[in-house]
Amino acid sequence: MLKRLALGCVMLAAALTSSAQDYPSRTITVIVPFAAGGPTDTVARLVAQSMGKALGQVMIVENAGGAGGTIGVEKVAKGAKPDGYTLLLMHIGISTAPSLYRNLRFDPQKDLEPIGLITDVPMTFITRKDFPAKDMKELITYVKANKDKVTYANAGVGAASHLCGMLFMTAIQTDLTTVPYKGTGPAMTDLIGGQVDFMCDQTTNTTPQIKGGKVKGMAVTTKTHVKSLNELPTVEEAGLKGFEVAVWHGMWAPAGTPKPVIDKLSAALKTALKDPAVVSKFAELGTEPVAENRATPEAARAHLKAEIEKWAPIIKKAGVYAD
Ligand code: ASP
Q1: Which residues line ligand 1 (CB under 6 A)?
Q2: Atom 1 of ligand 1 has which residue's CA nearest to it?
């Protein structure tokens, strides 16, 4: 009996090793927990296309938006096979969700295996084209004076646009009406259409719309100016001391994915982040790939832990919760 069990284990281990050696032998799906056409989708499509080339397989993106990204993360963390064929591309929201949600059904540190970090994307405050304020200073004054009628769009509790809005409301000590979407892709459509007043969203989504004059760019959320949007001041320059948020992104596989598979994915990620096509498109969209030593499982694991610890007290203080 024992002998047979041992043989079974050896066979299973051999099967896993050989499938890890052959990996990847078919299409890989990358889940993006937000709507198509938004900032995370844009980053994912650029990276997936290049990683696919490096791996010799097609990498497709599947959008699973809703609940600030937690639905899509849960899909990978709890519902996907740990075989390397279903991956997750998510951002800072994976570190804020454990503090924001009372009943989160996954633990990002236990249920996911990190592959590497990808990019830190600046955010921008933008308004509908005909919004009365002409710059960030005026926006702050106007929003405070008209708090009952101004609407702030976001991608749900746990999204980067939610986090930025929460920090903004705390900084100006004013509560605003928020309008949640499944991603800032659809939120942008409504902002351009004038159905909502303003939002804080990543440059990977806002740059073309600011440059095309479809929305008004007000300020960037980083400490320094963003090269591709150099005309915009920082939020801090507009008067909100210490205001800073950048949206780090990473890639994960379900926990239990074999190490050789993770290593192949991490190597492909590093290659993609050096791909001139990715680098130049990132630059056009106001961002850049992380340094090579951050595109690793170890760096992503340590960063996630640090970020969970960083945001927990800030969110607690803001008193924002969802179920
Ligand atoms: N990253 C989200 C999206 O792609 C938006 C957000 O997090 O605010 O729609």
Answers
A1: 34-35, 38-41, 91, 93, 155, 159-161, 183-185
A2: 40
Alpha carbon of 184 to ligand 1 centroid (Å): 5
Task: Note down pLDDT in tens along the chain; length 323 residues.
Answer: 555 655 555 555 555 555 788 999 999 999 999 999 999 999 999 999 999 999 999 999 999 999 999 999 999 999 999 999 999 999 999 999 999 999 999 999 999 999 999 999 999 999 999 999 999 999 999 999 999 999 999 999 999 999 999 999 999 999 999 999 999 999 999 999 999 999 999 999 999 999 999 999 999 999 999 999 999 999 999 999 999 999 999 999 999 999 999 999 999 999 999 999 999 999 999 999 999 999 999 999 999 999 999 999 999 988 888 87
The single-letter code of the amino acid at 300 is A
* Beta strand ranges found along 19-171 (DSSP E): 28-32, 59-63, 86-91, 112-128, 151-154
- State the burial class of residue 323 (Cβ atoms within 10 Å of its Cβ: 0-12, 13-18, 19+): exposed
